Amino acid sequence: MFSHESSDSDSEYEEDIEFLVLATLIKKKEIKRRRYWVHPVNNKRESKGEFHCLVKEIENDAQRFHQYFRMSKAQFEEVHSLIEGDIKKIHTKFSKPIGTKERLAVCLRFMATGNSFRSLGFNYRMGFATVKIIVEQVCNAIWKNLAPIVMPQPTEQMWREIAKGFENVWHFPNCIGALDGKHISIICPINAGSTFYNYKNEHSIVLLALVDAHYRFIMVDVGAYGRNSDGGIYQESLMGKMFESSQLNVPPNKPINQNTEPLPYTIVADVAFPLKTYLLKPYSKAKLVNNNPNKIFNYRLSRARRTVENAFGILRARFRVFQGPLQVQPNMADKIVLAACCLHNFLIQDTQETQETLMDESEVSDGNGLVDIEPLNRNPSQEAIQVREAYKTYFVSPQGQVPWQMQAITQGRTLFN
Questions:
Q1: What is the chain's mean pLDDT, rounded?
Q2: Under a CB-based contact definition with an 8 Å cutoff, are residues 272 and 376 in contact?
Q3: Domain DDE Tnp4, which positions (predicted)?
Q4: How far apart are CA 268 and CA 172, in angstroms?
Q5: Which end of the chain is more exposed for a tag (fewer CB within 10 A), N or C?
């Protein structure tokens, strides 16, 4: 009896296995029939794709070309010449690779519009995964080849030139940069939990940027987790550690007036950062009541610090991929941000182009992928307080004041940000 039941069970088991094998073979055959080496729609890329039709039509229309790529044709060609070697693919007997100019065009269009990879795939008649790979590879190439040119490691002489720019344009001596940070909104990362979840109830990575008097990024630090405390973001960043350990060739202290003691070269920042001897922040609201010297210091610092806010504004207006959350994972988001900062510096040299970009900002949506970092409360050192007091004393002295500062502080401007 036992043997008979076992035989029946084995027979049923074998039938089940045969059925599963047959079903699997049928499924594989169906999948195989549906797959293409290149989709028939994409086979017409060179005759009907956007790069080979629309882009070719606007090549001789400078205004349209600039509106499409956010740069002139000459600038496009220059960027292409710098990165061509890193994005060129080998021609094989099986397939003809996508050209380097078309690859650059796809990446620039992605950054200029923020369109999804799927949307760009339809426009350019490419596979959706191919678009993603192209954007990532081109962003890597831009950072690799443009960063040493447009964002080199500062030398002592470069710091002096930057300080001269702040003194001439913004009337702030010994200033070597304006510092600020922004949360770059991203979609919820895979298996990340709350790692990137910030105080605005969004997922983000953090961009720390040091900017010169002409809205150019001197240094950037990208990739900190959105959930990190904002004071800790700077302290743990490579930029913060290098400033703390004096590894950035900052010149020695210099008098800001003939009759004053030498003062350190400083960075200007807002209340989100700690007060240090090399990093000045405004006085708090409580210390502004009936205190014009403190208000004047805040006003003068605010004037110099606006350069970094303007730089972020130009970046957001030019590259509308930052209008909302980046639809990519954090690792790729870092690459997009770094490439955008390089292109910003490359393009900021064109004054007219920058003005047009700022004018276009009024046309963009209300969405914002750049969010301020949260204020930090921390007790500063006595030495840092003395440095800030020395700058304040200079700004209210006959040698350091500007004619309009008293009028500015009596007009009710916000002087503590």
A1: 85
A2: yes
A3: 179-345
A4: 10
A5: N
Tell me how far apart the alpha carbons of residues 41 and 50 are, in angstroms, rounded to a whole number.
13
Q: Is 369 helix (H, G, I), strand (E, B) or coil?
A: coil
Spatial distance between the Cα atoms of 21 and 130, rounded to a whole number of angstroms: 34
Structure tokens at 325: 């959350």
Q: Whole-angstrom Cα distance, residue 106 to residue 137?
A: 11
- pLDDT tens digits for 240-251? 999 999 999 999
Q: Which residue reads 């350019």 in tokens?
A: 124
Q: What's the pLDDT at 344?
A: 97
- The Cβ of residue 124 has, within 10 Å, a number of other Cβ atoms equal to 25
Q: How far is 399 from 389, CA to CA, in rounded Å?
A: 16
Quote the DSSP letter at residue 268: E
Q: pLDDT tens digits for 333-367?
A: 999 999 999 999 999 976 545 455 544 544 444 45
Q: Which two tokens stand for residue 59?
A: 């090549």
Spatial distance between the Cα atoms of 243 and 249, rounded to a whole number of angstroms: 9
Asked if residues 269 and 379 have their Cβ atoms less than 8 Å apart, the reply is no
